[in-house]
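Quick illustration, no need to memorize.
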Amino acid sequence: MKAPPGKYIWSTKVGEKGQIVIPKEARQVFNIKPGDTVLLLGDAERGIAIVNSEGYKQFTEAIFGALNNKGKQDE
């Protein structure tokens, strides 16, 4: 069965120190380079998601924007 366009699945093993290797094809698709920061998002029911550096930047800006707006509402 072929995955729908834009949907992917890969597998990797967890090493003795808890480390994983992001498969080469996944790094290429999501433009993840050595030295990039990635964000791990976790949900106890749904699992873990890895967000690349651009997603991390957007996520951080959204958080700070929400915090700044909350502070303005509290004034």
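The chain has two helices and two strands.
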